[in-house]
């Protein structure tokens, strides 16, 4: 068996995991499954692409940072794109989810997120057409790193970025007052208010983090595969599978779930054929939930 | 005459419009006092203090804290205003460590003073100090109540409001909780509490109110109220021999 699937799986798993963090936070803090989360990825990728284009128009052609395929414009654009995607999530919450949440029925919010997902996706098709596009058409040579694995410099950079972001979010959740407030809110919303936590503020932070990470995942997909309006929607099932596999509410769980699903899918392509790719992650999900219904890092209801 | 800290006048409150549970209740709590609110089941005791804490919609009346109008202020602003509330149940974050339960309540303190303040709480509650890394959900019933009280005290509240702190505890822990409250009063914190366990509450309280059908019907010195014939009729009634044995009805 060729070990290349390890590199491929880790990359796919990073994309899934970054998205799953947003899914798991929204689910545990706002108590609904946000089906529009995948479309935040696509919006993030297009927003970043648009900023890269704008920087190109303003400053002309800028040489990439060797050996990567991209230069500082993409890095700047990614940061702006993360902020923009966070704001998009925030705006969507203000005009849609918050109002419905106030009425207190979770299923209505879930349905609304379906609608929002379609609307966001159609809007992208309207603005950018459904033709795939790319950050760069340059072809990178994958370097052998031993054990028969080859990886491009871009891929290494993205894996490192994922690791930094995941560590950052984990530290934020466990070491800061904001993170503790998020944990508190997910465990007992009424008590969170009693101890002085401004719930509206924590909800805003949650959307901004979820949106920002979705943007990074979208840009990763854009760099390694391609940018299409449907790119995020297609990630929805693996993201939810990862969030559930890791245990709802757990940031490390979501990432580990993402990596397991990414690796399993990549391994399945080699072992039993590409057509089983999607099925294998759900078989793993079901097997894990059969043994441990609350997910790997999940904690049972009190 | 000491200074009035909490002044509740003609409070009306309820979860649904037109269905008040609290119907014109008036109580005052003076600086350094322990005031107990007693009353039969369904009298609106819990709703009264939840309304004071901003958790039940208020439809009439006023709540003054240190002379400031805090009527219907949002619940999350109450700690900043000086009122700390300890709910009857689910009053800790079960999946967070003891220490994080304390830290998460420190939002209104300056970051620099938080570690010292937490150590002060550990000094006051040594049981918690020994379990600072334990998930709060794994504490015993009495320790949970301790953590909930420590969590409320950590922000230097003017008044500590507790909803049936002895509910669901075994007799040993009930005694411990009331002992703890008496100790907290000695440190200068004003306390308002609702209790089913009338005898134990009156033993540590200064004054008490009897709430009936959402309204304060009677008040008096705590130590005298137990033998007050009006109270016996209003509240204690036929069930008097059963009360005071540590059980909530």
Give an account of the 3D structure.
The complex is a heterodimer of chains A (302) and B (249). Chain A has helices at residues 4-30, 37-59, 72-103, 106-128, 153-175, 177-187, 189-194, 199-224, 236-246, 251-271, 277-291, and strands at 143-144, 150-151. Chain A is mainly α. Chain A has a single domain, classed as ABC transporter involved in vitamin B12 uptake, BtuC (Orthogonal Bundle). Chain A has a two-stranded antiparallel sheet with strand order 1-2. In chain A, a hairpin with a 5-residue loop joins strand 1 and strand 2 (150-151). In chain A, helix 9 (236-246) runs parallel beside helix 11 (277-291). The model of chain A has no long low-confidence stretch (mean pLDDT 90). The radius of gyration of chain B is 18 Å and the shape is globular. Helices cover 33% and strands 24% of the residues of chain B. The relative contact order of chain B is 0.17. In chain B, the strands form 2 sheets. A 6-stranded mixed beta sheet of chain B has the order 6-7-8-3-9-10, sandwiched between helices. Chain B has a 4-stranded antiparallel beta sheet with strand order 2-1-4-5, with helices on one face. Chain B starts with a strand and ends in a 13-residue tail after the last helix.
Assign the CATH class of chain B. Answer: Alpha Beta
Radius of gyration based on Cα positions of chain A: 19 Å
Order of strands in the sheet with most strands of chain B: 6-7-8-3-9-10
Q: DSSP helix count of chain B? A: 10
Alpha carbon gap, first and last residue of chain A = 45 Å
Mean pLDDT score of chain B: 88
Structural class label of chain B: alpha/beta
User: How many helices of chain A does DSSP assign?
Assistant: 11
Biggest interface, CB < 8 A: A-B, 19 and 30 residues
CATH topology of chain A: ABC transporter involved in vitamin B12 uptake, BtuC
What name is given to the CATH topology of chain B? Rossmann fold
Uncertain stretches of chain A: none
Write down the overall geometry of chain A: globular
Record field, number of beta strands of chain B: 10
Assign the CATH architecture of chain A. Answer: Orthogonal Bundle
End-to-end gap of chain B: 36 Å
Give the full name of the CATH homologous superfamily of chain B: P-loop containing nucleotide triphosphate hydrolases
The fraction of residues in strands of chain B falls at 15-25%
């Amino acid at each position: 068996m060729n070990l290349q699937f390890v590199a491929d799986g880790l990359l796919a798993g990073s994309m899934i995991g970054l998205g799953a963090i947003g899914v798991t936070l929204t689910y545990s803090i706002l108590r609904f499954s946000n089906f529009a989360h995948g479309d935040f990825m696509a919006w993030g990728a297009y927003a970043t692409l648009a900023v890269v284009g704008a920087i190109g128009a303003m400053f002309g052609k800028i040489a990439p940072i060797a050996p990567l395929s991209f230069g500082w414009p993409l890095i700047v654009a990614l940061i702006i794109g993360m902020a923009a995607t966070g704001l998009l999530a925030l705006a969507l919450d203000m005009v849609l989810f918050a109002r419905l949440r106030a009425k207190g029925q979770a299923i209505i919010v879930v349905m609304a997120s379906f609608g929002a997902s379609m609307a966001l996706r159609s809007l992208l098709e309207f603005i950018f057409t459904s033709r795939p596009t790319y950050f760069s058409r340059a072809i990178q040579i994958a370097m052998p790193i031993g054990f028969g694995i080859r990886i491009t410099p871009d891929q290494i950079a993205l894996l490192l970025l994922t690791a930094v972001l995941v560590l950052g979010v984990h530290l934020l959740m466990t070491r800061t007052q904001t993170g503790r407030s998020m944990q508190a809110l997910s465990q007992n919303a009424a008590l969170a208010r009693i101890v002085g936590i401004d719930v509206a503020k924590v909800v805003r932070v949650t959307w901004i983090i979820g949106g920002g990470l979705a943007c990074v995942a979208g840009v990763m997909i854009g760099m390694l595969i391609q940018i299409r309006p449907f790119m995020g929607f297609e990630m929805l099932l693996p993201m939810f599978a990862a969030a559930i596999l890791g245990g709802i509410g757990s940031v490390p769980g979501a990432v580990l779930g993402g990596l397991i699903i990414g690796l399993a899918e990549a391994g399945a392509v080699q072992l039993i054929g590409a057509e089983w790719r999607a099925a294998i992650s759900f078989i793993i999900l079901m097997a894990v939930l059969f043994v441990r219904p609350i997910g790997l890092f999940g904690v049972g209801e009190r | 005459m000491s200074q009035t800290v909490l002044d509740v006048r003609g409070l009306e409150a309820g979860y649904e419009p037109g269905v008040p549970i609290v119907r014109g209740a008036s109580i005052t709590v003076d600086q350094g006092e322990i005031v107990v609110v007693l009353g039969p089941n369904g009298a609106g005791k819990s709703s009264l203090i939840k309304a004071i804490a901003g958790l039940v919609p208020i439809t009439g009346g006023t709540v003054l804290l240190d002379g400031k109008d805090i009527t219907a202020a949002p619940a999350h602003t109450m700690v900043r205003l000086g009122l700390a509330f300890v709910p009857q149940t689910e009053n800790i974050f079960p999946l967070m460590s003891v220490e994080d339960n304390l830290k998460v309540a420190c939002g209104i303190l300056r970051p620099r003073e938080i570690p010292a303040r937490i150590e002060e709480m550990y000094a006051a509650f040594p049981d918690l100090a020994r379990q600072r890394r334990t998930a709060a959900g794994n504490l015993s019933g009495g320790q949970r109540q301790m953590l909930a009280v420590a969590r409320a005290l950590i922000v230097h509240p003017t008044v500590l409001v507790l909803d049936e702190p002895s509910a669901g505890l075994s007799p040993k822990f009930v005694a411990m909780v009331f002992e703890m409250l008496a100790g907290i009063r000695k440190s200068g914190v004003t306390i308002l509490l609702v209790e089913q366990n009338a005898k134990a509450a009156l033993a540590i309280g200064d004054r008490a109110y009897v709430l009936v059908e959402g309204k304060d019907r009677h008040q008096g010195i705590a130590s005298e109220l137990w033998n007050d014939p009006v109270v016996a009729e209003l509240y204690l009634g036929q069930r008097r021999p059963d009360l005071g044995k540590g059980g909530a009805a």
